[in-house]
Amino acid sequence: MFRYIIKRLLLMIPILLGVLVILFTLSEITPGDPVDSLVATGATLEEREALRETLGLNDPVYVRFIKYVVGVCKGDLGTSYKTHQPVWSEVKLRLPYSLTITFSAVFLAVLTGVPIGILSALKQYTWIDNALLAICMFLLSIPQFCMGLFFIYLFSVRWSILPAFGITDWTGFILPILVVMLCCGSSYARISRSSMLEVMRQDYVKTARAKGQHERVVVFRHMLKNALIPIIASIGNDIGGQLGGALILETVFGVPGCGKYIADAIMSRNYPCVLGGVFVLAFLFSIINLIVDIVYVIVDPRLKTSIVIDTMKQRRKVGREAKAHG
Amino acid sequence: MAKLYTPAMEKLDRQRSKRKEGFKADSPGRQAWKRLIRNRTAIVGMIMIIILFICALFANWIAPYDFITNDYTSLKQSPSSIHFFGTDNLGRDIFSRCIYGARYSIFISLFIVTCNIFVGGLLGTIAGYVGGKVDNAIMRIMDVFQAIPAVMMAICIVAILGNGIPQLVTALTISGMPGAARNFRAAVLNVKSGGYVESSRSINVGHAKMITRHLIPNALGILAIFIVNMVAGGILIISSLSYIGVGISPPTPEWGCILSQNKAYLMTYPYMVLLPAACIMFAIFGFNLFGNGLRDALDPRLK
Amino acid sequence: MTETTRENIVEIKNLTIHYETPEDIFEAVNNISLDIKKGSVLGLVGETGAGKTTIALSLMGLLPFPPTHIYSGELFFDGQDLLKLSEKELRSVRGNRIGMIFQDPMTALNPIMRVGDQVSEVIMLHNRVSKEEGKKMAVDMLQKVGIQPERYNDYPHQFSGGMKQRVIIAIALACRPELLIADEPTTALDVTIQAQVLDLMKGLQKELGTAMLLITHDFGVVADICDECAVIYAGEIVEKGSVEDIFDRSCHPYTIGLFESIPSLERDEKRLKPIQGLMSDPTSLPSHCSFYDRCPKRCDLCKEKDPTTIEVAAGHFVKCFLFDEEVKKM
Predict the structure, then answer these.
(1) List of chain A residues whose C-beta atoms are within 8 Å of the C-beta of residue B289
(2) Which residue, A130, B102, B126, B212, is most buried by CB atoms nearer than 10 A?
């Protein structure tokens, strides 16, 4: 187990390095000269060249890249063009907002979506299944920002019970979490349903029934645990996407989170902030993937006993198949 | 408890009389089509998609007004019989703008899906078909791209290339590449293990013929479902991105853009925001319903 | 309820089962009657789709309702009509007095549950024993089927196909049932393992005195292990009797055709002799003889009416007009 964690951590490094390559390439091809925003207007050419030298902008590409990577390892993600503050300190302030919303929403979504999906599967062919399926499909068709706008209209404009914009106290968190919870929950419900249906069809369920086992025990002991494995895989695959999509939601609700930070930075062409922020999110994404992989290995005894080096691949595959059936 | 029923014996007799001598079973394609037709939600989805396509293709003839002219005499009018969705702050008819909006959403989405198929799909097919080191290399690169959430990637690329439709398409193709590659690779691996590849090889069928004759028809079903789902996802992400001002910018009547422009009026003139949002939902819902029905029709066991 | 002869553990009378889907009605089992004597082995032979598994599942009460409808018939197990029992009563029969072995050993075991626990589960379900005692009984049963006690805590994926099938046999026989239903238990295994598993089943059957319903499409298996045999075609029993009756004195054209299609070690054959045509579509079975299209000995009467079942010798039944004395007179 311990060896597996070490192996996975090591695997993370080349991926993050690859991400840095992409980000560095992007920063290289961005139009505009970084020096422009750092010097006062009317600076002479010599002053610009001097600044170039000090910033190391004239070094060859690979030297700059290595310096960039080293900087990232030390925690230096660049400096904002606008505020001249280190990007990391600005991102650090905003992370708690993004993480609170994402994690509490995902947690609530799992708590509601998965049982609903499983119930739906158990009651297949009845009106309960059809109704739940219809509701889930409808919710899935609403983009998060649309749902956000609807809720702002409903709760802030018509009924005036919740704040529309910004986070002044804990009530400001309610609407964003609600939106993410509904969107993710319906997706998880669908995945759970199809995973459960797949399990219900399996031969070992027949064997369990042939033993004379009570239906409730068959469901909980035999079906549920087997169904949970692909569900965990799918949800794990999804969380990263949710982190990325949080950006749009934060813009709608004015949440001062990581996503909005990046979005604002894009508007103002503040590229170091964009790249630094994206890197932080990619790093978080990798850590979440790692945790999900570990949970996956613990839950599925087939992986515990066999030597699987790349459970990440296996988990992604299982998750994708579960989602495709959904 | 075993239930003793008396099924409708007339149904049995009807069935018997229906069968003539020399009755031929339907091909799998025809069977799937029949199942699709019988699925009511799929029909609803199909109708919704057809409506969208009609709006997109014939917007010039359907929309009562055009989407650019500002009419300062009728600003911010509520929905009425002359302006179905009302007018916005520049006097433009929102209903017409929404109809024109269908054009952008659907066609850009389709275009992106096509690019995805050619770029990501090609990579995935090569990886799956060739296997071995090539497969490994391609998938590792896809892993790196997937480590950056898709929305972020799209935003970064558009930030660099600037706003505009070609740039948006490029960005979304690159961010959607890993997903498409994996899907296609899985489909190819599925078909490869299906036995007919091996049996064709054993009678010396060439590679090209193998791909066209065997891989593609069998993968067609999966492809159709993939396309429908991707178009739904595409509409979602395009409108989300243009809402925050990335990709398509005003005064283009793309739905997300319309929302972005009108969002300031959510408090005062809510119809300006809610009705275009309903259009987005209509489109995505239609594609989702149809995609669902398609999947159930092509593989009813999975239901 | 009719008096049943106590020497039969199972008596099926006039059972008809349909599967109803929105598109079609599948006539899976049509008016069959079968008896299984206590402690004896009945082989049920037929092609794929003939209805064998349906009969097995109906004995266990595992048919899915919907789409299955039992149109008519009675299913007596030790004097009780299983079709009239409540679900609770059926549960006390399943696993306890009737055990079942399914076709594919690779998927019949729960992949995330330890193998030993799967055996002790059925023991503890039907016996009032403590957990330790149940475990001990499970270990004994596993040893009986040739699996070492150390492997109690292993998972199914750590076993080969043949060993998985042994575990399944252990589960089925753990509560010493009176009837064992084996649905093509060796079809998914390779030939050498087949022989081992069959020997195991033979030995256990004799030791425990369990009656067995062995479903197969392989006459070799029937010859090896069965006392009686019934041939099923399109949901109907076309011929049944003792193994000697069926093998040496086969009457029905279908049975004869089946035997002739088996390649012979003695004769020098250039081509195989399959039965012409394909199995009838279960959604459109004719009201006359189902075997009419493929029968080499058909006559006009066969096209009009469904044949009756005739007893040509003691205990040997055939469903064919060829053996109907009254018809022969005509």
Answers:
(1) 137
(2) B102
DSSP A83-97: T-SBHHHHHHHHHHH
Residue A40 clears pLDDT 80, i.e. is over it: no
Residue spans of chain B under pLDDT 50:
1-6, 20-23, 302-303
Contact A204 C110 (CB under 8 A): yes
For chain C, which chains pass the contact test of at least 3 CB pairs under 8 Å? A, B
Subunit partners of chain A (3 or more CB pairs within 8 A): B, C
- How far is C135 from A240, CA to CA, in rounded Å? 44
> Has residue C58 been placed in a domain?
yes
Q: Are A101 and A174 in contact (CB under 8 A)?
A: no
Q: How many CB pairs under 8 A join A and B?
A: 140
With H, G, I as helix, E, B as strand and everything else as coil, classify residue C275. Answer: coil
Q: Provide the whole-model pTM.
A: 0.82
Domain residue limits at C122: 3-234
Query: Domain of C112: which CATH number?
Result: 3.40.50.300
**What is the dihedral sign for C-alpha C250, C252, C255, C257?**
positive
Contacts of B303 in chain A (CB under 8 A): 197
Which residue matches tokens 């239906």? A215
Residue at C261 is within a domain: no
Does residue C243 sit within a domain?
no
Q: How many domains does chain C have?
A: 1
Q: Inter-chain contact B149–A266, Cβ cutoff 8 Å?
A: no
ipTM above 0.85, yes or no: no
Query: From the CA of C13, how many Å to the nearest CA of chain A?
Result: 23
Tokens coding C15? 């059972």
C284 within a domain of the structure (yes/no): no
In chain C, which residue's Cα lies nearest the Cα of A225? C112
Q: How far apart are CA A167 and CA A156, in angstroms?
A: 14
For residue range B77-100, list pLDDT tens digits in order: 777 777 777 777 777 788 888 888
What would the pLDDT profile of C4-57 be if each residue is shown by its tens digit?
456 888 888 888 888 887 777 788 888 888 899 888 999 999 887 778 888 898
